[in-house]
Amino acid sequence: MVKKFLTLLLGFSFSFVESSYAQEPKPWGPVPSSAQLQWHETGMYCLIHFGPDTYTDKEWGYGDEDPAIFNPQNFDALQIVGAAKAGGFNGVVVVAKHHDGFCLWPTKTTEHNISKSPWKNGKGDMIMEFKKACDQLGLKLGLYCSPWDRNSPLYGTQAYVDIYREQLRELYTNYGPVFMSWHDGANGGDGYYGGAREKRTIDRTTYYGWDTTWKIVRDLQPMAAIFGDVGPDVRWVGNEEGHAGETCWQTYTPHAPEEDAIPANGFVKYWEATTGHRDGKYWMPAECDVPLRPGWFYHAADDAKVKSPYVLLDLYFKSVGRGAGLDLGLSPDRRGILHENDVNVLKEFGNILKETFSTNLLKDAKFEASNVRGNNHKLSGTSFLTDTDPYSYWATDDGVKTPELTVDLGKNATFNIIKIRENIKLGQRIDSFTVYALKDKRWEQIAGATSIGSMRLIRLPQYHTARKIRIRIDRSAASVAISELGLYAEPVHLTAPEIVRDKQGFVRLTTATPVSGIRYTTDGTEPTAISTVYTGPFLLKSNGVVKAKAFKDRLAGGLSVKEFGLVKASWKVVSPVKGDLSALIDDNEFTVAEVARKEGAIAPSSPAEVIIDLGDVTKIRSFTFFPPQSTSRSGLVDQYAFYVSDDNRSWRLAAKGEFSNIAANRIGQKIKLNEPVNGRFIKFVALNLIEGNKASVAELSVN
């Protein structure tokens, strides 16, 4: 009897202990691999484009560039990586080979490599320089070797695929551990191809034998996350503007091309890549890539067009703050270092991040949860919400999917940023939540959002002051597992002015917030507190650059820069004569004209052409083509010809080429002519459209 009693007692005691200690929730849905976890922990990194294109002023080289042009006399990997670190970035992905096929390491696979350049007398290895800089400064190294090679005569054959795989083996064997293996979606098209100078088309889904190719990465760099348009580890967000969707699921299901889903060119449908799939079969988070300048390679003409620190901050909230990664493009100049403007912006951005997130206003707050898993606060309690471990968490019991969390800060605090994270080792569990603040003894809703995952930052449109807040989980697929909660206040700043010019040449400056005044310049210098005060529209007849800043008391806002061509007051579209094509020349980049093909066009294969009368003989040094700013690919022009005439009868070819990467990066394409040309009429010919049969043009300008 005694033995039986003890057995029952011990059994009861064991059951009591077991029930009083919370068991970890079971993962829900797909979860990240170890390689993906370290990618999430990296948060944001930089993609470094440097090569022959830096010296030819192109975005995509054809592959016929002479390696002798690549000779950066002052190359300094420490300066480049150090600037990225100062900006708060945790890694760099170096473009070891771009589409032109030029390799920045002394590869054995092709003669088109850095050993054939005069840099360091052909003995240099730029990838090794970046590796050493990353090691010294404590940043992670990633590599990108373009699958497309416009130089190789073997491109399009299996022999080239073998070469490409050998290039990956060299890179992933000789430069230590990498955190990311980056693969672009641009594949196939016109190129030099060893002198053939032709267009080569491949099936990007099968040509490279991705399963075999990616296995090389898996075997040599098992902790590297592999990026591609549709994974396999990290997906492209669907734009090169640096932002994910307001809702952005970190799960995704790649699928075969379908009508209106993945076009024949292979690009995933914009909204799918941007938002992901709530019921996605795989953990495949999004990367948001965006260049610091308008383009990915350095162009001196863009020195004044570097994104401002607060533009970068906005992108940070719209990428990292939505559970994606931020990949910022850096482009060393011809010296082999980052331009001073780029360095200064990165440093200021890093300082703003530090100032914004240095103090979590909830650090000493008291939390009251409607449910704690197993009622065990030591294992699943709210104390884990403000520690430094991204995988410790407050959890609720199974079946408790809509809990509430009330937070008492102890005193009033002013904030405009709410931070919340899930323990993604257990999946992306929460569908939506709402945030309230206690004001005048009433709970006032101040924010709400959908997806959380690895990170959700809500940037409120105004500052709020409160002592208590409440988080309510409105919908969740499983019991919650929240690893972090925070309130922050970003530094007060003024928004950068908007600069617009009408067809008559009058420039208007506006701001979204009240300011003491806007000051501007037209001579290329940066506005200061003693620059010209904006009092109303002013006339800018000739081409030039307007720079503007808002000022209030001692506070200066962000810098706005806008480059304008010649005033178009006397311009007329003379061909085609049908349809309203005024949007071509209204000095508004957000209005679009569709130009149909004209029979008997100067280029028989061209889908469209337009002729503009400038009103008088004009000296033309360059022209600028603005593509539509929508997400549609229909009508996008990627090959062009530009002609000039005195009489609209006899035409002279002034420029011909391609708009590289225009589908993903829809910036103005400024084409400098080889020499100035005088003429009264200009003709723009669309030699090729990515899709559709009408050319879509937002604006044409000349300088």
From TrEMBL:
<keyword id="KW-0378">Hydrolase</keyword>
<comment type="similarity">
    <text>Belongs to the glycosyl hydrolase 29 family.</text>
</comment>
<feature type="domain" description="F5/8 type C">
    <location>
        <begin position="610"/>
        <end position="703"/>
    </location>
</feature>
<dbReference type="Pfam" id="PF01120">
    <property type="entry name" value="Alpha_L_fucos"/>
</dbReference>
<dbReference type="InterPro" id="IPR017853">
    <property type="entry name" value="GH"/>
</dbReference>
<dbReference type="InterPro" id="IPR000421">
    <property type="entry name" value="FA58C"/>
</dbReference>
<feature type="signal peptide">
    <location>
        <begin position="1"/>
        <end position="22"/>
    </location>
</feature>
<dbReference type="GO" id="GO:0016139">
    <property type="term" value="P:glycoside catabolic process"/>
</dbReference>
<dbReference type="InterPro" id="IPR000933">
    <property type="entry name" value="Glyco_hydro_29"/>
</dbReference>
<dbReference type="GO" id="GO:0005764">
    <property type="term" value="C:lysosome"/>
</dbReference>
<dbReference type="InterPro" id="IPR008979">
    <property type="entry name" value="Galactose-bd-like_sf"/>
</dbReference>
<dbReference type="InterPro" id="IPR057739">
    <property type="entry name" value="Glyco_hydro_29_N"/>
</dbReference>
<keyword id="KW-0732">Signal</keyword>
<keyword id="KW-0326">Glycosidase</keyword>
<dbReference type="Pfam" id="PF00754">
    <property type="entry name" value="F5_F8_type_C"/>
</dbReference>
<dbReference type="GO" id="GO:0006004">
    <property type="term" value="P:fucose metabolic process"/>
</dbReference>
<protein>
    <recommendedName>
        <fullName>alpha-L-fucosidase</fullName>
        <ecNumber>3.2.1.51</ecNumber>
    </recommendedName>
</protein>
<feature type="domain" description="F5/8 type C">
    <location>
        <begin position="350"/>
        <end position="490"/>
    </location>
</feature>
<dbReference type="InterPro" id="IPR059177">
    <property type="entry name" value="GH29D-like_dom"/>
</dbReference>
<dbReference type="GO" id="GO:0004560">
    <property type="term" value="F:alpha-L-fucosidase activity"/>
</dbReference>
<dbReference type="Pfam" id="PF13290">
    <property type="entry name" value="CHB_HEX_C_1"/>
</dbReference>
